[in-house]
Amino acid sequence: MVGSGDMHNLMPLQYGIVSYIDELAQAFLVTLELYFVGLVLGFIMGLTFAIMRQFGGRVLSRIATGYIEVIRGTPLITQVLLVYAIPVAINAAGIADLPLNWYFYYIDSQNRIAVTLNWPILASMLGLGINSAAYQAEYMRGGFASITSGQLRAASSIGMTRWQSIRYIILPQGLRRSIPAWSNEAAYLPKYTVVAIWVGVMEILNMSKTVIARTFLSVEMYLILAIIFFVFITAINKVLEITHSRTKIPGV
Amino acid sequence: MSIVLDVRDVWKSYGELQVLKGVTFSVGEKEVKVVFGPSGSGKSTLLRCINMLDPPDKGEVLLKGQSLMEDGVNLTMMRARIGMVFQQFNLFSHLKALDNVTIGPQRVLGLEREEAVDRAHVAIEQVQMTDWIDHYPAQLSGGQQQRIGIARALAMDPDVVLFDEPTSALDPELIGEVLQVMLDIAQAGTTMIVVTHEMGFARAVANEMLFIDDGIIVETGTPKHFFTAPENERVRQFLHRLEVLYGGQESVEQ
């Protein structure tokens, strides 16, 4: 005989989706981590590549172009798998002994370990950032290219260096102008975080599948999943819309 | 009178097109030189060669005796001493009028914010735009934008200011206010090279006029010389065409 209390801990089939709210919330937190870190990393790298491509001269612009083409020409999932697998393979081959078995966690309300960061999560963040950078770079470059050359000549005429012109004239205007196009990337990326499932990250899709395995409520769970993403992405779009209108240059 | 700018045998081509074919002239302190001639004659190219936005193929440009074409010269700091006012104004559209003027003193000359603002206020006062300092370029008329463009150049306290057809993109009713500002700063002792077809302005303040055609200086002289007895046939034809265009009236009444 198996007691009902044990059943609750192992496989509480008698409960609905609602009873997994803590697990789903924890998994969504991981999804948010993947998203924000991926977006910010993609922004920093993307800005660097956009500047390199637009203003970097022959060598740097070719490097940036090559990066962007390779990333846009290969599947995101391949990139994430590679980022995850390369250090693992290095360890396996005995080339180095990279630390991959650490993790950060907190103890949830039911005394369980909730992992917030480990190698699979970090690898997914890096993969998403590396991928997003290529797309963000292209959106930003479009914004930079739209600044008239006259303003650059004016900047030169008062003695600004090339870098000062980029920093004080191009970036403030180009980044503003790239917000609408960039919003696409900001709205796509949350959906792409689910690729982390392939390196074993317990993010929201992975947890949803676990919940379905325990409750068999597949349609309900997937609908809830869709609604979660829809609400989140709608909120992001709203924030970006407000940002865009607040940063508008008066009169333009 | 000390020489501020010395232009010696400047040549410039774009691909096959030879735009400047050996231009030589100099500008003394507090002098105003007006450069005029048919479109495509090389006037704007000459200005861009002077401040090295488009470096000459050969020749020499000296600012107070210092070459701008020597190896190792700090071109950005030399450019900071040569103001430029553009036909299309080219204001920085994300900055208020005031900040269009402070950005040079602050970022290039390294002044503190307060110093840069003080300097900007003086320059903006000179172009009579004090009431508009908090406006963005897109909120200003063309004439107002150009006056801020002039203030931006003046705030750098340059040795010489180059004007590249400063009024030719303006609606007729806005030309007067810009010319008036240019007259004021000329009379205040600003060293200027002005590419313009505004003959009234030339007559009022030019120490010398240079007629450029086909990449060379065809004729030089005082305004009086040009308006009474120009020697070259091309000059006569050109002035005649301007007269027909503007109905024989000067655009600025003196």
Topology:
The complex is a heterodimer of chains A (252) and B (254).
Chain A: H1 4-10, H2 21-55, H3 57-72, H4 76-92, E1 103-107, E2 113-118, H5 119-145, H6 149-157, H7 162-192, H8 204-215, H9 218-246
Helix pairs in contact in A: 2-3, 2-5, 2-7, 2-8, 3-5, 4-5, 5-7, 6-7, 7-9, 8-9
Chain B: E1 3-14, E2 17-28, E3 32-36, H1 43-50, E4 58-63, E5 66-67, H2 75-79, E6 82-85, H3 97-108, H4 113-126, H5 142-154, E7 160-164, H6 172-187, E8 192-195, H7 199-205, E9 208-213, E10 216-221, H8 223-228, H9 233-245
Parallel strand pairs in B: 3-8, 3-9, 6-7, 7-8
Antiparallel strand pairs in B: 1-2, 1-4, 4-5, 9-10
A few lines on this structure:
The complex is a heterodimer of chains A (252) and B (254). By secondary structure, chain A is mostly helical.
Low-confidence spans of chain B: 250-254
State the share of residues found in helices of chain B, binned by percent: 25-40%
Note the run of SSEs of chain A as H and E: HHHHEEHHHHH
Can you tell me the overall shape of chain A? globular
Percent strand of chain A: under 5%
Largest sheet of chain A: 2 strands, antiparallel
CATH superfamily of chain B: P-loop containing nucleotide triphosphate hydrolases
Structural class of chain B, by secondary structure, is alpha/beta
**How confident is the prediction overall: mean pLDDT of chain B?**
93
Tally of strands of chain B: 10
Spatial strand sequence of the major β-sheet of chain B? 6-7-8-3-9-10
